Amino acid sequence: MTVSNLANVRQISVGTEHSYALLFDGMVKCWGNRADGRLGDAITTGSSLPVTVPDLTDVVQVSAGLRHTCVVLGNKTAQCWGFGEDGRLGDGYAFSRLSPVTVQGLANVRQITAGSSRTCAVLHDNTAWCWGGASYSVLIGDGDSSTQPRLTPTQVVGLTTAVQISATGQLHSCAALSSGPPKCWGVGIYRVLGTGNANHSGIPIAVTTIANAKQVETAASHTCAALNDGTAWCWGHGDDGRLGDGEKLERSSPVKVSGLSNVEHVATTGAHSCALLTDGSVKCWGKNNRGQLGDGSKIEHTTPVTVVFQTM
């Protein structure tokens, strides 16, 4: 179905019970649950229709997390709002905010990713920075064994050629580099770090069996990457066929998604994954009990199926 009162959309980002649309004019509209201030308009009752986030202009990217949202502005600074009691908003405090606040000490921002308890960003100098909850000391990637929240951005160790980052995995993050294999860090449960084992790592470690990833996406229990050669690879928990290799096995190293080529972008969530192809088509695989694969069925698929878009 079509979202009402929404046009000229440049980018969509979906969080937990809230959604965001970035428009071509640099404005941001959102709808859903307003708890914790996650819609950014200083109101706490939900909205089933898109509303404008006040005082936000010239936005170039939006990322909705578990209970908070962040944006990159045209002046290359970042702002966040919503739940902030673990420091994930990056303003130096552990408070929730009903409207956007500036991330402290962060400039020249290229891309931002809002996760479950933390936020990360890549700068134009190709360094990566993270902040927020550190219930596990390995989550932030700064090599510090402390479990204290990082209230302002701290630099991720050893990442100097990062081009894209994903912190949407519940307990791990990964980054694509300008060349070579992607790197991951965090809790290694389900082997989501792609290093051949289930070990944790507080600093980024290379996923050595693939190279030249242009984008990587983390989910709660698996990870996928789009490579420069147009293929897609996934690793981690394999239930429901979410890795796309025709099996339902846990994989400690990346496996190639079956039958995919010309992949532009990958997306991951709890138990399924999708890929946008260069021709504009979308293919998905994994759990399908709610019809989330978009192929007109509710049958899970261990290899990609084409999303069927209905014409109005």
Structure description:
This protein has a four-stranded antiparallel β-sheet with strand order 1-2-3-4, with no helix packed on it. The relative contact order is 0.08. A hairpin with a 3-residue loop joins strand 9 (109-114) and strand 10 (118-123). It is 0% helix and 44% strand. The termini are close together. The chain contains no helices and 24 strands. It has a domain at 161-312: 7 Propeller (Methylamine Dehydrogenase, Chain H), CATH 2.130.10.30. With 312 residues, the chain is mostly beta strands.
Descriptive key words:
312 residues, 4-stranded antiparallel beta sheet, Methylamine Dehydrogenase, Chain H
Oligomer: single chain
Spatial strand sequence of the major β-sheet: 1-2-3-4
CATH structural architecture of the domain at 161-312:
7 Propeller
Query: How many angstroms does the end-to-end distance come to?
Result: 9 Å
| Largest β-sheet summary | 4 strands, antiparallel
User: Based on DSSP secondary structure assignment, what is the total number of beta strands?
Assistant: 24
Strand content: 35-45%
Number of helices: 0
Q: Do you know the CATH topology of the domain at 161-312?
A: Methylamine Dehydrogenase, Chain H
Envelope shape? globular
Radius of gyration (CA) equals: 18 Å
The whole-number mean of residue pLDDT values reads 95
